[in-house]
Amino acid sequence: MLRREEIRIRDPFIYTDFENKCYYMYGTTDLVDDCVDARNTFSVYRSHDLESFEEPKVIFDGEKCGFWADQDFWAPELHKFNGKYYLFGSCKAENKHRATHIFVCNKPDGEFVPLTEEPITPSDWECLDGTFWVENGKPYIVFSHEWTQIGDGEIWAMELSNDLKKAASEPFMLFKASDNPNVSELNGHRGAYVTDGPFLYNEDEKLKMMWSSFYQGRYLVLDAWSDSLNGKWQHGGSRFDFDGGHAMIFNTLDRKRMISLHSPNTANLERAFFYRF
What we know:
The chain has one helix and 21 strands. By secondary structure, the protein is mainly beta.
């Protein structure tokens, strides 16, 4: 078994399996030493208490199936929809745009396969951190249009077909990173503002989002809220006062609501942390 503090992971995403009384932790795990680059596998850690974890299990290996991407397998999320388990993960290859691809399996820790040959995000955009949301019975992907291509990073949404295999609408923008006054330029990159890790939830009759960016060099968790995906988004400040982010919300086996994130945002030191919400 591995202790939580022994596991280097970025973007930790927790799926609580109430039927089998355990947790699955996904995230950027195939990390290269001394940087945030990653190789080409997705893995999962299984736990019963969020402190001790079984050895990681590879659930997708890009080399084994001739997958289009071969690097930077980042930030996978698990979502159950219509009886199947879908993994939304970011990946990249030389001379190809970074994208979110959707993978499917019949169990949370099984062998996932690509749902389609091509990624789901727009083919000529640099995209990452796709997440899943259902609004008025319709499935959507919500994702980041990356600062590396456009400077001021953006959060976009796009309706999907019911089998999640194709777009059912044109993408539409929710907001830009610079719309939040608590965001500053990425250090060393003039005019660059980051949008990372959107995660959606309902609270107080509002649609709310956690997402991450930078303020004066510190990685942080920010809040936004609206009446709907296509509504007017408002913005709040940093949720924590330390260097950490790419957060999501989950319920523990005893129904306590928690936030999962990685901290610090420093290569080799990143660890998963869980906080009451």
